[in-house]
Write a structure and sequence with these properties.
This protein is of the alpha+beta class. It has one domain. Helix content is about 50%, strand content about 20%. It is built from five helices and four strands, in the order ααβαββαβα. Strands 1-2-3-4 form a four-stranded mixed beta sheet, sandwiched between helices.
Length: about 170
């Protein structure tokens, strides 16, 4: 009888140890390393502050999108361009985004690009890139505005609203 109780005790101990081992490896597998992480916000502090002001001014009349790829609202024409030329023009906009894209509420038609210009925009290459993009916006008749970080975002958002209202009335 003692051997039977000892056998049951050892068996229970082995089952308990197996359960602990299974839980340990299940948790370890669930926490496997990944190179990805969830960011706490899609905007930096300046972008968030400007977005809040812009939303106060435009929120009920327009859609305000942030971090939109330029290629999502600017296309490259097919006619009169070879495949290589189209590829070259597409490279000018591919993998680039705008800080904010203001769109018509009912149609989502892009109306204005807004860029916040922080210290990175003091760089010569960045200014050249901005100028090339500004030329594209002019060519396709899309309004654009550059806002200096540190300026009154409330005032700048009001000016953008005025500009959009004037464009509608023209």
């Amino acid at each position: 009888m003692e051997k039977f109780i000892l056998f049951i005790f050892i068996l229970a101990l082995l089952l308990f140890a197996a359960k602990i081992a299974i839980n340990y490896f299940a948790k370890k597998k669930a926490k496997e390393w990944t190179p990805f992480y969830l960011k706490q916000s899609t905007m930096n502090n300046s972008e968030q502050a400007f977005f809040i002001n812009l939303n106060k001014q435009l929120g009920l009349e327009y859609i305000i999108l942030s971090k939109v790829r330029i290629e999502d609202f600017v296309g490259v024409k097919r006619e009169r361009l070879s495949k290589g030329e189209r590829f070259g023009f597409r490279n000018r906009i591919k993998s680039r985004h705008v800080d904010f894209l203001i769109c018509d509420l009912n149609t989502t038609r892009p109306l204005m690009v807004v860029e916040l210009d922080g210290s990175s925009h003091n760089n010569y290459k960045r200014r050249e890139r901005d100028n090339r993009l500004n030329e594209i916006y002019k060519e396709i008749n899309l309004e654009y505005e550059h806002i200096k970080v540190g300026s009154s975002f409330e005032e700048q958002a009001g000016k953008i609203k005025e500009r959009l209202m004037n464009k509608i009335n023209d």
